[in-house]
Design goal:
single chain; mainly alpha
């Protein structure tokens, strides 16, 4: 099991935030073997298509250099002129090949890790030149796997090369009568060899890709404490958030209690529930809930109502229903209009209009 610098076991999978932070630092799962296999395959295909023209251009350049080119007066101007005139076609054939291979390599890299423009991996770091860190990295799991894939490539290249070429040893030993045909046959054998090599490298690249993904995830695994710290940073400290919610409830409770003296009636359970209602004929279309609560809050509402001589009416079902369905600062639900209206009418009749 992986451990961090403090020796704690990394048992938790990396979070999206940790993966994103690692990506910003240039730490991604990248397999160079895949790029090698794809570039080699594309290069072989391009050479298979353009090979005849390229060989012809090379032949023309060699024939001129070994023939008429020997009689040219060697001056700076003549050398540049002859180079452009007779050897520039080689550049025209090589440049597209190099450009295509570069584009393919870039595309394979983007396909593996996505488009990422980041200069941080180029910044020198002391741990990269630390001998102890380098020794650990060299003989760690990643170093041993790199050695294993290197050995597998050597073995694969040796076996494939022998299997492909051994069947044509007599062909290679014969002195050719038609050099052009011989070159064509040799090019086809080399092309077949290249395809077999690409196939072997593709299998090795697939294994390396899986290992790089596994190692990348393993390197970024987290301890439980790291997971808690990240949660605190992204979501906020749970204790602090609970304290804020508590303060908000206390503040809302104080504001609610300040509204109780404005009530016209308090409907009670009588001991566990209290709902303070206000009704002004000139401003309220229906009775409005100023405060409500259970147990200690209910007792506090009743104490304030008694202090301000606000009538309190015991009605168990109505008190429970209003405490459950009604919202503070809003009119009561329609289904309770008639019951509350009867209570307010009796109180207003006894006290007279305000």
């Amino acid at each position: 099991m992986a451990e961090n610098q403090n020796g704690a076991e990394k048992t938790e999978m990396p979070t999206p935030k940790r993966l994103e932070d690692a990506r910003k630092e240039g730490q991604v799962a990248y397999s160079a073997e895949i790029s090698t296999a794809v570039i080699l395959l594309v290069g072989l295909c391009i050479l298979a298509v353009t090979g005849p023209w390229f060989c012809e251009a090379v032949g023309d350049s060699i024939r001129y250099a070994c023939g008429p080119g020997l009689t040219v007066e060697f001056t700076e101007e003549a050398a540049v002129r002859e180079l452009i005139r007779h050897h520039a076609p080689l550049v025209w054939w090589i440049t597209p090949l190099i450009g295509a291979l570069f584009a393919i390599g870039l595309g394979v890299g983007v396909g593996q890790v996505g488009l990422m423009l980041n200069g941080k991996p180029l910044i020198p770091k002391l741990d990269r030149i630390n001998p102890v860190t380098g020794f650990t990295r060299l003989f760690g799991l990643r170093g041993w796997m790199r050695l294993l894939f290197g050995v597998l490539k050597l073995i694969a290249l040796g076996i494939i090369g022998w299997l492909v070429i051994s069947g044509d040893l007599a062909h290679f030993a014969r002195v050719p009568h038609d050099l052009r045909a011989r070159l064509g046959d040799d090019a086809w054998i080399l092309f077949q060899l290249g395809l077999w090599v690409v196939g072997a490298l593709a299998l090795i690249a697939f294994g390396d890709f899986l290992f790089q993904r596994f190692q990348h995830t393993r390197d970024l695994m987290m301890t439980r404490q790291e997971l808690k710290e990240e949660f605190k940073q992204s979501e906020g400290d749970p204790h602090l958030k609970a304290r804020i919610r508590q303060l908000q409830r206390e503040l809302a409770g104080r504001r609610m209690m300040q509204e109780v003296p404005k009530a016209d009636v308090v409907i009670t359970n009588p001991t566990h529930v209290a709902v303070a209602l206000r009704y002004r004929q000139d401003r309220d279309q229906a009775p409005v809930v100023l405060a409500k609560g259970y147990d200690a809050v209910a007792q506090q509402i009743k104490a304030i109502a008694a202090e301000h001589h606000i009538p309190m009416v015991e009605n168990v079902p109505l008190a429970r229903a209003l405490a459950k369905d009604a919202k503070i600062g809003r009119p009561i639900p329609v289904q309770w209009y008639q019951d509350v209206a009867q209570i307010l009418a009796a109180i207003l009749k006894a006290k007279g209009p305000r």
